[in-house]
Amino acid sequence: MISKIYHKESKIDYEVEDEEKTIELNSLDGVKGHTRTGLNNVSTQGSDVINMLTTLAFLLESERLTEVGLNISFENHQNIQLEINTHSKLISLDIKPADYMGAFKQNDICMKDGKIDLTILRAMILLVVHLSLIPTLYSLYKSDSAGTNVKSELISDITDDITERIEALKEKNNLTEKL
């Protein structure tokens, strides 16, 4: 998913019963993981995470991701803030109902005393994530044999991009100094 966001290929098109649908990975809002030595944790977060130099360092140093924050659009849900945690053998998912935008905000079930009940909204979003989104993603990627080299290709692409930016900056500074 990190690679798809970095390469601006964040739309995942699929078909269900002859109907075209799309999952869109809007942004990567944070990642956290353990280093190879196990002595340190590495993490990065922010709205422009994928373009930061620390992301490259993170990918190079992390052995496995333990937390990933994603902003996803799915069906009639324009913004689901999804947090994936893999601290143990179990994977847990959580969402941020206050940041949600979508069809459930107009649902009468979520309303209590004229306001949105975040507990009910959270439960409804979690049901959609667990019963629809995750199974869909799993079915789309379970046999993805191209995914085996994704991390090394992503590291190579980020390295190339950073090198190009540094070279462009050097050229710009040389021109400025000569003027």
Key descriptive features of the protein:
179 residues; alpha+beta; seven-stranded antiparallel β-sheet; two-stranded antiparallel sheet; 4 helices; 9 strands; 34% strand; elongated
Account of the protein in words:
37% of the residues lie in helices and 34% in strands. The chain has 179 residues and is α+β, with helices and mostly antiparallel strands. The strands form two sheets. Strands 1, 2, 3, 4, 5, 6 and 7 form a seven-stranded antiparallel β-sheet that branches. It has a two-stranded antiparallel sheet with strand order 8-9. Strand 4 (62-74) and strand 5 (77-85) form a beta hairpin. Helix 2 packs antiparallel against helix 4. The N and C termini lie far apart (44 Å). The mean pLDDT is 78.
- Rg computed from alpha carbons, rounded to a whole number of angstroms: 20 Å
Low-confidence stretches: none
Calculate the terminal CA-CA distance, rounded to whole Å.
44 Å
Average pLDDT taken over every residue: 78
Choose one word for the global shape. elongated
Main β-sheet: number of strands, strand sense, barrel status?
7 strands, antiparallel
Q: In a nutshell, what does this entry contain?
A:
With 179 residues, this protein is an alpha+beta fold. It has four helices and nine strands, in the order αβββαββββββαα.
